[in-house]
Amino acid sequence: MNSQHTIALDVMGGDRGPEVVIPGANLSLIRQPEIRFLLFGDEKAIARSLERYPDLADKSEIIHTDVSIPMDAKPSQALRKGRWKSGMWLAIQAVRDGKAGAAVSAGNTGALMAMAKFCLKTLPGIERPAIAAIWPTVSSECIVLDVGANVSANARQLVEFAVMGAAMAHDVFGQKRPSVGLLNIGVEEIKGLDDIKNASAALRSFDTPFEYKGFVEGDDVGQGVVDVVVTEGFAGNIALKTAEGTAKQIGAYLRAAMNRSLLARLGAFLAQDAFRALSDKMDPRHSNGGVFLGLKGIVIKSHGGTDATGFASAIDLSYDLAREHMVERIADNIQKYHATLKLDDVA
Amino acid sequence: MNSQHTIALDVMGGDRGPEVVIPGANLSLIRQPEIRFLLFGDEKAIARSLERYPDLADKSEIIHTDVSIPMDAKPSQALRKGRWKSGMWLAIQAVRDGKAGAAVSAGNTGALMAMAKFCLKTLPGIERPAIAAIWPTVSSECIVLDVGANVSANARQLVEFAVMGAAMAHDVFGQKRPSVGLLNIGVEEIKGLDDIKNASAALRSFDTPFEYKGFVEGDDVGQGVVDVVVTEGFAGNIALKTAEGTAKQIGAYLRAAMNRSLLARLGAFLAQDAFRALSDKMDPRHSNGGVFLGLKGIVIKSHGGTDATGFASAIDLSYDLAREHMVERIADNIQKYHATLKLDDVA
């Protein structure tokens, strides 16, 4: 069995561990029957959860460890205590050793990134890994990166993010030439944006396998103006959380509005299919999964508080990326750009 | 007549100039009959627009100038060509000279900020002015700053933003002790956030006339977790635009959902009052107006593309701030903090 069909799961990670991870894996298996799992964590707890899913049990191998990383552990603590032996580490190591095509964890982001960097190492030519999120748009979806791996980025790093994000768009959306934009603010002649301007000039100056569209603003992201939005991690994380918060807020307004009168309640009852479609469209579980880009292997961070449906989305995403050989595509493209663009001069 | 009842308007600013500014002023006058206006711009165009509003004409003085600042002028060009004589400049100058309590312009942001700084000067003890926006929340509204005057901020500047934002919350929301949060991302031990951490330590270390609540994340803003959200201008601008974009996007989803079947259309028809209330609640015109804080006078930037309703909101806001003597409150509080907090040590 080819390892790209095998996904390594950190079963004890996340707010509810196997209660969410196991039924999530089962949902994903139903959609993709050729998938296999390596399940890292407490053997007894996993076996108990698997009892209800005999098909999943057939496709899974349990690897016992009694070390798991607490959700509030600091990255340095997690590395010290969990390296070589925690479920999180072992899942990543399975990717490194070619036993799995990707690892998925709902554990804590900082610990997962620290372990992934330490175990897998960064791809040659890439300064820093980034975290990419899938963002729903009016027309379909786009990719936004970095959403929090770093809190700043120089021009060279922004160019690398563009290359990595475009490779991911190729593999997730099946786009031959994804469009890419740099997130900026619409104020002329403002100081301090030299990195963004230099990255933009660099992206314009050579023949990319994606279409560079220039600057985009915060309100362009959800309009689907480009397939890939590149930014540094502080603004990217704040934009992502702000969009999630705004969606929640409008959902609350909508529920309040539909309860304000008998007529409104009747209207809402008649339109319940429409509301169901809307709530499905706005469901954050469909786009669950932050992809760590720039490492020698695929690691995906699921929301810690998601449920089985959300966790299954993160597995599906990891499976797509593993089968499409995203890591090789990123490595190839980065090598090409280093040859033509001289990224070392960009920063 | 006390000047704090007089608002200076840059009539030719914005995408549609007097067509929007004059009916906007009239709407505001209806709500606040004691208001007076100084109208700066092309005399004939203004007089023509005023014909339909005799009450407004009675309360207004027209000051003619044929210089106006193009929407796409760079700040340096605008200063060179429009200083001393453009409508934008003259409106700000009226504030400086005590003839008006505040100036409102829908002209270009960079030009307006450059002129406001040049003409009014920064308050003693403040390093940089900021732009504050009013942000609708689930419970009511909050203030977010900076949303784009600068693209970075050190610890001292963030503390100053907190002081200024709290003074504005006092005057706009009538809150004796507004709550203040620092926008941050929820990743532990990440590097590069020293300014935010130092600002947070400084805000905790002394007795503020506001309640400092610590860090908030992007999804807390719309939940109304604090009255004032402090951040640097790049992330703040992106957050603001992202929230606007998300609201637009969900509006589009909602319309599409309500048109997908006959039953949904019938439901939407019955619930039309509820939808109207919802769309009123989400109407960005209600929170139109970016307040320039930290200058020796009040200047408000209206959206360039707003209509009379939106422009009237910006006037209402400027009138509130002028009557409440916000500038004096900021100046007093900054002096106090300089005495106790030694802001010079914070940076």
Tell me the name of the CATH class of the largest domain in chain A: Alpha Beta
Strand content of chain A: 15-25%
**Which CATH-level-2 architecture of the largest domain in chain A?**
3-Layer(aba) Sandwich
| pLDDT < 50 stretches of chain A | none
Radius of gyration of chain A: 21 Å
Question: Can you say what the CATH homologous superfamily of the largest domain in chain A is?
Answer: Isopropylmalate Dehydrogenase
User: Which pair has the most extensive contact?
Assistant: A-B, 71 and 70 residues
- Based on CA inertia axes, which overall geometry of chain A fits? globular
- Calculate the mean pLDDT score of chain A and round it: 91
Could you give the count of β-strands of chain A? 11
- CATH domain fold name of the largest domain in chain A: Isopropylmalate Dehydrogenase
Order of helices and strands of chain A: EHEHHEHHEHEEHEHEHEHHHEEHHH
Instruction: Supply the number of structural domains of chain A.
Output: 2
Features:
homodimer, Isopropylmalate Dehydrogenase, alpha/beta, 347 residues, eleven-stranded mixed sheet, 2 domains, 15 helices, globular
Could you outline the blueprint of secondary structure elements for this entry?
Two copies of one chain form a homodimer.
Chain A: E1 6-10, H1 18-31, E2 36-41, H2 43-50, H3 54-58, E3 60-64, H4 75-82, H5 87-96, E4 102-105, H6 109-120, E5 130-136, E6 141-145, H7 155-173, E7 179-183, H8 194-204, E8 211-216, H9 218-221, E9 228-230, H10 233-258, H11 262-270, H12 272-281, E10 290-293, E11 299-301, H13 308-323, H14 326-341, H15 343-346
